[in-house]
Amino acid sequence: MPDFDGGHYFLTTLIPIRGGAVATAGAGGFSHLQSLRAELERLPTASQSEASAASDLQSPFGRNLRTHFARFVVIEDLVFNGREGDDPLAMKMRAESPLVPRPVDELNCAYLMFTADFDAKSGSVQELRSYAEDLWTTMRAELEAVLQHCIGFDKIDSAEAFAAYLEACQVETTMPFNDYFLDPIDLEGLKKANLAGWPERVMALVAGSAGPAKLAAFAIGAAHLGVLLAPLFGWLPATSILVLLAADLCAVALLLLLLRGVAGPILRKVEEIGARPLPTAPGSDLPTVLKAIYLQQHFAQFAAIAQGLDEETLSRRFGEFLADHAPDVPDDPTQPPGVVHSQPRSLPEPGTALHGEKR
Amino acid sequence: MTRHLELCDIQGNVVRAYGRHSYPYARYFLLHVHDAAAGRTLLQSLRPLITTAERWKTGDPEQEGIDPPPVTLNAAFSYAGLKALGVPTRALRRFPPEFIDGMRARAPILADEGASAPDRWAPLWQAAASDADCAVHIWVSLNQKAPPLDRGPLDARADWLRKQVERSGGGVSVLKGHDADGADHQDAGVLLDSNGQFFKGEHFGFADGIGDPVFEGQLDPAVEARRVIGRGKLLRTPEGARVWLPLATGEFLLGHPDESQQTPPQAPPWPLTHNGTFLVYRKLHQNVGSFHSYTRRIAELYMRVMEVPFEEALETLRAKMVGRWSSGIPLIKCPTYAEARAMEARLPTLSAAEREALFSDFSYASDPDGTKCPLTSHLRRGNARDMLDPELRARRGTGPTASDEPAHLVDSALNKRRRILRRGLPYGRAQWEDADDSAEHGIIFMAICSSLFRQFEFVQQQWMNYGLDFDAGNERCPITGNHSHGRFVIPVEEASGKAPFICDKLEPFVETRGGEYFFLPGLGGFDMISHGLVDPT
Question: Is the Cβ of A303 closer than 8 Å to some Cβ of chain B?
């Protein structure tokens, strides 16, 4: 279930966009698609560049403390790559003419893709619903402005209805990308946990069947040797070799059937293990990430200023630093979501007034 | 198979940095073409004087070659210049977008902001942007051999060039305003040290232009074998050794396969761009006074924290920023002040080959943490050699090793597509003492590469003005970065018991004062342009 991995829900939704023109009093001329694009243009991005940081605008996704990434993408249609290349000889044999057009692959309408990577305890539908409800309560106006141009949204008037709407539009995220594994994942440990008991069971099976298997192999080998050698002495007609071959074919077919019966469950088990979500990366929830970014900047600043201080002063100033920035307290002081810097460009020397931003 | 390059079809500045071949004086002209036919006539008059890449006589009777000219001449064209000279749209539209944009429009990518912003460039560039009759079209460079030690031959050739322009009857003009005084040319040249001797370095006092790339076909095989070490690309052989090989020709000349093992696209027709390449021309002002005062101020702190004498603190701090000691000795070879001083004393006794090995033959395999040479020093940023190899990055935190051979076979695969040939020279008079920022001094930075976007712009944007590839966040190059509140960290060995040293509040020591991208055609391409015979159909 790759919708959920490493303690993050990776939501992907494809929301169909309404066709035709927006209903206006007498004056037409704007399609839902154009209007939706215009609404997306108006939607502020997070303050992640020099230009956006200088403005007062902030992304509405910054109003909740769960969203790591969110993105809207308009997918107008798929690019049609043209006819598939074909072998002219094969076409000739199928009596197929290259002049006859083939169906062109297209979307039935334009889609709005909305993706988000947010904190969740599990991949359960309740987690998706609670996130959708969070969005509804913090940015309903923006959601309505954008989604009014999508099919079926006109009936949405509550957080629950919005959650159900997103759920209906959800598609499986097949390849999530989790950016917060700073240290390599303990793959050996995971392997042991996931395969608990399995290697032993397989080994026991192999060990248990070793004796009978050897005996069977010896018997089959002896029978073959007998049937191949007997005609030389006139004990059996030569055609009995054909009978042996036929018997072998039957045996192989039986063995394949047997293997399929065994291999199927093994493959399903492997798939199931592969689909298990990775564990939550340590400290990868948004409040902790924000606090880490906040501390990183302030501590780097402190380290620069603290160079060359005598031990007593250093100790005192570090005490002040701890009191000011409370590394153990995740939410105060910290950096608000949606910004890159949490400190002014020039800081006062420590000891004067080095207070963090209060949220 | 190595293909023999047609050297007389390639402009000479592609294969040689003239400043390092006894040509200490340079003069650059920028021309505007009002009339295409007049412009082409001027080009035809320049043609016989263009310096090609043919081998020069070296004094070795075994070696064939032509006599080095007393004054070299090379010419290149901006996008607007190609258009003004009548190159057809069908050819123009296939030139790369960054070349079509021109350097001014690329300012956000090149970090030309703040004091480096185009609206603060020298008057010539302001006029070029605002007045269509002053657009920069043709770049002409003259380099003069020494002796003589005066600039007589250079002046004579410059006067000859001005006469050729005059003869165009207003069809071509020499642009003025390279500096605030309105000069019609830009002078540059090797600096003189305090004893009046040539000093092959720049205004901050560092030897420069040492690690220039070497590409296939550039040099005579015997010279190549010596020069390629430390200047080519590092490859792992199947036998488990590391070798230096010349970079693919296509990294620096169009029409040849490059390091991606294919011939990159080029504007048609083939002969227009074949053996041509792109040239970056940038006038970089150096805030010598700020550099001295900043490093002196931080050295006071470094002296106290690291418990070393001031002179050692200052020299070490500057060397850590650059990656080489002022003498050019790389920190990788001599990580400590004492080692560097001892080696400097031995320098006069070293043979040419030993000097070459000392200055160039190194990799970063022995220094995964940058405790010898900081990961974000100018040298490592400009030419990452093998430091970006994932195997080496995986060894971060393990400390330096005594030798980088042969236990750690890392190569330069992530660096070999980002190399540039540097052809610049300093301008202005050196101020070794009591330097200030305001005097007219800096570097005429020139780079040659077959893709401005992939090579020059990438290095400038991602390596000089960003730190992600070095795990250094937003940090910029301590020397050339356009800092607003920059920081530079000097890693130390864990065993020293010291904390990493942080240089805080870096200032922009280098500011852009103007520049443009030029197409430097091969001689065949030059002829097509000058004859108006570019037919891309």
Answer: yes
